[in-house]
Amino acid sequence: MQKEVLQPIHEQVFFTESEINLDDLMQTCSQKTLKEEYPLADSVENNVVIYDARNITPLIDNSNQEKRVKTELNHILEKGPGVFAIRNLYEEKVIDQSNVIFDKIIKNEATNKNDHFASGSNTRIWNSFQKVALENSEAFISYYANNILRVVAESWCGPNPQMTAQVNVIKPGSEMQKPHRDYHLGFQENEAIQEYPISTHRMSQHLTLQAVIAHSDMPLESGPTLLLPYSQQYELGYLAWRNKEFKGFFSKNAVQVPIKKGDGIFCNPALFHAAGSNSTNNFNRIANLLQISSVFGKAMERIDYNKIIKNIYPALLKHQNNNTLSKRLVENVLVCATDGYPFPTNLDYDTSSYSSLHGLSMFEVTQQALLDSLDLENFSLKLSEHQRIRLSD
């Protein structure tokens, strides 16, 4: 009698939208934030931990105390509610100096740019980080010399994190954003997300830190960010945030914390959140949105994909037209020979919509060119245009 071969039992690592469970999210978000768990905090409001920069500043002058601060903040972002606020993060004169520059940039650009998750007439400054640096060196230095900002960034992303920033001016009558998770997996469609193992879902939230720096007061009626504390702990959240039931739960249970000009709110990018609607008649809510990235998000060697793909494109096109390589095998080559990620890009020109949260990657441009049987000359023109709109000004 042949001996039965037992197959190893492995934990499930790939999930689809059909496997999300609202009850799991409800149970996760039923946790309560206790002030005694965060002894360096000033208070807890609506499950959000509140700090005062004036009390943190003396601590970070001592290396041991600085690690204590970082440890507490890290715990909040991963195992706690996933969000905290810091009052008095910036002096008002620093904020006012930046606001003058923001106004100048907006006038020069003379256009409204909406965000990824909301319709309406909000005004965006994409890449305010670079634009301010080029406009006024001293304003840039004053803003990013902030000691607490660095400590907060390092508490989640580790040493030497990379900074990007986008200004959002939310005008009276502007609608609330759709609740969402953020970059990286938060910018992918569900069809793509379900192709990533759950280990990547867990990893994605550790690669960035989200922040809202208030450049105006943000009373409740102006629509400060809605937050769903503890939702970052729900592992299938990247598949869930578009779901109607999940959005309904968010609308009933999300909280808001009014903040003042110069305050900051920091959150795990996997936290369900959404900028609120501005129900005022004559008040612009102004936020500088910081996205802080781990320095590890880079390859070991610098590859010139442009040279590679232009050189092999005629051979790939010949293989495709002669059916000497299957579509799958051609794609296997493209995965290696092109940049398959649409970021970083220039969001002034490489536009996106809510239904498609990013522009095309080099992989997708090349794939479409092959499907259209473009010759090398026309493919090169299309590739050059794709690269041009992605370059920083």
Would you give an account of this structure?
The protein is 38% helix and 12% strand. A hairpin with a 2-residue loop joins β1 and β2. Strands 1-2-3-8-6-10-5-4 form an 8-stranded mixed sheet. The chain is of the alpha+beta class and 393 residues long. It is globular. It has 2 domains: 277 residues, q2cbj1_9rhob like domain (Jelly Rolls, Sandwich); 86 residues. The longest helix is centred in the N-terminal third of the chain and has 18 residues. The model has no long low-confidence stretch (mean pLDDT 90). It is built from 15 helices and 10 strands.
Distance between the termini: 73 Å
Number of helices: 15
Rg result: 23 Å
CATH uppermost class of the largest domain: Mainly Beta
Low-pLDDT residue intervals, each spanning 5 or more residues: none
| SSE string | HEEHHEHEHHHEHHEEHHEEEHHHH
CATH architecture of the largest domain: Sandwich
Large-scale geometry: globular
Tell me how many strands there are: 10
Strand content: 5-15%
CATH structural fold name of the largest domain: Jelly Rolls
Whole-number total of structural domains: 2
| Helix/strand class | alpha+beta
Average pLDDT taken over every residue = 90
Strand arrangement across the biggest beta sheet? 1-2-3-8-6-10-5-4
**Residues in helix, %:** 25-40%
